[in-house]
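Action item from last week, closing it out:
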Amino acid sequence: MEIIPAIDLLDGACVRLHQGDYDQVTRFSEDPVAQALSWQSQGATRLHLVDLDGAKRGEPINDAAVRAITAALDIPVQLGGGVRSLERAEELIACGLDRVILGTVAIEQPELVQELAQRHPGRIVVGIDANDGRVATRGWIEQSDVLATDLAKQFSVAGIAAIITTDIATDGTLAGPNLEALRTMAQCCAVPVIASGGIGCMADLLSLLPLEPLGVTGVIVGRALYDGRVDLAEAIAALGEARLQDVTAVAADIA
């Protein structure tokens, strides 16, 4: 299982929001490139960027930081937040990003997701951010009536690389992942699922292992890494390809 550290960009700085609330911001670093290089040096095989300004305003305020990060790193970088047109997605790919994550447009312009997936195989990811099982859009400011599982089923056959599913109720809380929602999402998907939201300790990461055979292939970790509650190198050793844990044994222990 891939452990993917997250850098959330707001006005060019590394921050974290509590449950997606822009009024509850914690600033961790004013130098996102240095932070990205730190995660890479600790063994990260992929970096997850969120453009919070883009998600809220739909404007590319953090592009300079994105270009600097992709230029500095040797590992693939993916980004989500405010990608709402074909031109914007291709502009980001041209910046050096390995994957672009589409969220709001998956509901508002599903045909755009399909077109981009065909134009850029393996490089388009759908981000499904859910509150009580229903999809939130535009930086989690607006709530739709669309079920997260229905959206996942719709795009599972669209040629996308993966689905990132974020449980808004647990995001930034360190309270643990929503395992039930993750299991349901994985069972209805035909593409890999990447978990996001709620990771607060190593036990939370290990609790995901029984979901790996269902298709949960990665997990995004943010605040727990910055707070020191999770050590990235230790997490990679515990859940990565070289791990010693047996998924069946872990599942039995949790049961």
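Closing note: The mean pLDDT is 88.
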